[in-house]
Amino acid sequence: MFTEIATNPKYEKLLISTGNILNVLDNAIPLRKSHEELLDSLKLCSECASGRVDDQIEFRESDGQVLRANAELKQKITENARNEISIGVKLFMNKNSKECIKEAANALMSILNVDYVDNVVLAYHPNQYHTKISPGTPDVTAAALQHQSELKWSQSANDSDLNDLKELWFCLEDFALQKQINQLGIADLDTEALQLLCQSARVQPVIAQINLAACCIVPPTLKEFCTQRDIQLLTHSDPEVLLTDENFILPNYTVDWSLRYQVHVRCRGVLTAKGYLLGARKCLASDKVKE
Fold it and tell me: Which CATH class for the 1-129+148-282 domain?
């Protein structure tokens, strides 16, 4: 069925939901990296579609959605009252697009069937290296970041890139102001870029993530700024690009965005649901090969 999607004109745009992946992926791989987990999740969707795995998968041609175990996901989320769970999200943007930000946020609320999520962390790298990622790559994060000794987001970006980031942030702020996102966070900004974002933000970030593969020691200036602004400074091990076009399950599609959500029971801190959403579109003839 997945191969048929590529030739179906109703799937010009594609939205894939992996459903809750807890207890369905191979737990014998405890140190699976996030990009490997997403690739395995997409493989699971493909196996469900081909009938090799006995699991429910739904194809909605009207809006290009592919949903695995959607009913089970919603049931898992509603096992506890909404105020008893915390839903955290990390959104990876492969391109600068305000429409894609809105698409991702709306899809998240709709598929999880919730009115709000507790936090969303934005990851946007305008000059990221599109390294081909495969499960056998030993350390993609370090390779993609080329062993940088410190955070250099603003040094590799220009004024236009920063403005693009601000526009993406502006879109997320709209959801925060509408009480659909309780807290906003940002990933991988150095001190200068974070300061500039905060200067123009209507909704201040309360989370700042840094990748220790790119920054083995937290820069004192960044730590001081986050302390002054009451921003929680956290570390992560995600690659800049969670999924490249080359590693997507379907050829001739380009990945616009992907996100990971995690649902925890507040009082116990138990992870009760986890999954990925991904938005992609068919490549136009002019998009196909650009060296």
Answer: alpha beta
